Amino acid sequence: MKVAIKYCGGCNENYSREEVEKVIRKNFPDLEIFYSKPANVVVFISGCKKGCAFVHGTENFLHFDCKRSEEEIVEEVKRALWREKP
Amino acid sequence: MMSGKEYIESLRKLKPRIYFMGRRIESVADDPILAPHVNAAAMTYELALDPRYEEITTAVSHLTGEKINRFTHIHQSTEDLVKKVRMLRLLGQKTGSCFQRCVGCDAINALYITCYDIDKKYGTDYFERIKDYVKYVQKNDLMPAGAMTDVKGDRSKRPGQQVDKDLYVRVVEKREDGIVVRGAKAHITGAVNSHEIIVMPTRALEADEKEFAVSFAVPVDAEGVTMIFGRQTNDLRRLDGDIDCGNAKYATVGGEALVIFDNVFVPWERVFMCGEHDFTAQLVEVFATFHRQNYGGCKVGVADVLIGATANVAEMQGIAKASHVVDKITEMIHLAETCWCCSLACSYEGYRTPSGAYMPNPLLANVTKLNITRFPYEWSRIAQDITGGIVITLPSEKDYRNPETRDLIEKYMKGVAEVPTEQRMRMIRLVENLSIGAELPESMHGAGSPQAQKIMIARRSNLEMKKEIAKIIAGIKPDENFRKIRGVSEEEYFARFK
Ligand SMILES: Cc1cc2nc3c(=O)[nH]c(=O)nc-3n(C[C@H](O)[C@H](O)[C@H](O)COP(=O)(O)OP(=O)(O)OC[C@H]3O[C@@H](n4cnc5c(N)ncnc54)[C@H](O)[C@@H]3O)c2cc1C
Ligand code: SF4
What ipTM does the predicted assembly reach? Predict the structure, then answer.
């Protein structure tokens, strides 16, 4: 399963955006993770509620725009992956 | 796009003539005084390749469709203008310094807009030339310096009235293949570690001052170009280790040079204005607008570092929880975010010019910069207040490294017990670097002295309109809305009270 990570520019992030990526990589070692490439799931990571990372029209996506716990991130990713399953 | 490392490598291929402290600089990339400025500029390259930042550090060229570094972009929307200031704040946070590349970015944008208008009036081909030049800059991911400020000699005299006419850059010869220019530009940020220099006139010029109405680009190592790198407060501390500078990796402010053009030949394809004096005011104003837009971005990014440093010092000295300290740090944040609001506002209020490129709102851009001539003095005052006298009396790194005095410094320069003395020293030096040295006069004069902004603000705000509305509210002039709301004139309405 391919997952694309799309970061906002991070001009003044309110939390560590990289934590989201770290959590995903740690908990889902079998996923193929790319930056800004076509994929089954796109994970938008914005540094604040302005949400600059988000691109309208994306089918299966997750959007993080504030600090979330590891469990929450894992749960959301699992749900998105489940949506992709045939 | 180049990486930071490739940018540094690209500088090694150039051979500019640079002097500093009585010696010729052999390699800009490797000289210990200049290298930190080079590192700061390299950050503009590095972050463009990082997926965590590329959303704001890159753009798609409207000329080639290629992905480019945003510093080489011609802004195509207000969103582009906003992304530019977001990028500047980010870079200020990552370097705690001036990364220099915005001046060239502002120069190509100002020329793009102005050349289009000159061609419309005179049928010249400057717009095609600047488009070709922008493509060249984008393709090679170049860093051009922007050189507007003339040395100006006697400020009470116009360019042509100076005893020595070379005190404003001017055309001394026109040839079939190009022009020859002479003069000097002062305080040019990042000039020594740029690939190119873009020259623009410094002020609005009259019909008898056509020789000074000149804009062009040359490589930094063009024949006849000499640069004398300017001194900064505490610059030689860079030779003393990595603590005393405060910011050993990225220095402070951009690193400015006096750039002298001694009969420099410029081929026509790199000339963007030659005698069109009636467009000098526009070029200066558009460039200044772009440049003043920046300051609530980059300076606020640097302020973020200073606020962080001040909060760290407060913790390291055991005063972080004191209510006046919390209040003062909040005040620093308030001042910084106020400047950020200004940069965002002038960007969101930007508009499309006839060339198709977008520029920020000039009134609000000038307000942004005028605030920057004041607020950094206030947030620096607070940083110095919280840090204490140690901000200017801290023992040197050399004494800290000296076995004879090290233990004494370890013992007596300690703050709270859990923080190593060296960490406290580093943080104090960072506060010193950001609140005392070159940083403040740069806020004052970079992108123009306060009076230049006052003039623009006065010119751009509609004072007559404000006088009119005051007269209406005071009942001196009729209020058409009042009649609509009450169905009678003000006179009739208030007659019963008289
Ligand atoms: C750190 C730094 C970086 C800079 N980077 C660049 C750059 O990259 N490119 C660039 O082109 N420029 C750059 N500048 C130049 C900057 O734009 C100028 O410093 C600014 O425009 C002021 O000009 P000046 O320094 O010559 O001061 P002056 O013009 O001498 O001003 C000093 C005072 O004199 C007043 N004054 C000047 N002329 C008159 C007059 N005719 N009548 C009445 N009062 C007058 C001013 O209002 C001011 O109060 C930089 C400056 C600094 C400090
Ligand atoms: S989402 Fe927030 S932190 Fe990220 S680029 Fe946009 S404004 Fe900056």
Answer: 0.71
A5 near B CB under 8 A: yes
Averaged pLDDT, B335-342: 98
**For B152-188, how does the pLDDT look when each residue is reduced to its tens digit (9 = 90+)?**
999 999 999 999 999 999 999 999 999 999 999 999 9
Nearest C-alpha neighbor of B190 from the set B28, B10, B74: B28
The pLDDT value recorded for residue A38 is 85
Comparing CB atoms, the residue among B51, B57, B89 nearest residue A36 is B51
Cα distance between residue B169 and residue B285, in whole Å: 18
Confidence of residue A86 (pLDDT cuts 50, 70, 90): low
Question: What would the mean pLDDT of A52-71 be, rounded to a whole number?
Answer: 93
- The CATH topology of domain B4-278 is Butyryl-CoA Dehydrogenase, subunit A; domain 2 (2.40.110)
Residue with tokens 């003095």: B377
DSSP B161-222: GSSSGGGS-EEEEE-SSEEEEEEEEEEEETGGG-SEEEE--SS---GGGGGG-EEEEEETT-
Mean pLDDT rounded to a whole number for chain B = 97
Q: Tell me, in angstroms, the distance from the centre of ligand 2 to residue A46's CA.
A: 6
- B86 and chain A in contact, CB less than 8 A: yes
Best mutation target among A6, A11, A13 (most B Cβ atoms within 10 Å) is A11
pTM of the model: 0.93
Domains in chain A, number? 1
Q: Report the gap between the CA of A35 and the closest CA in chain B (Å).
A: 6
Q: Whose CA is nearest to atom 12 of ligand 1?
A: B149
CA of A7 to the centre of ligand 2 (A): 9
Nearest to B124 by CA among B264, B281, B278, B261: B278
> What does the domain layout of chain B look like in residue ranges?
4-278, 284-460, 463-495
**Which of these, B149, B225, B161, lies nearest to B188 by C-alpha position?**
B149
The 10s digit of each residue's pLDDT in B341-361 is 999 999 999 999 999 999 999
CA-proximal residue: ligand 1, atom 33 (nearest): B449
Least Cα separation, residue A3 to chain B (angstroms): 14
Residues 43 through 62 of chain B touching chain A, CB cutoff 8 Å: 51-57
Cα–ligand 2 centroid distance for B100 (angstroms): 23
The CATH number of domain B284-460 is 3.50.50.60: no
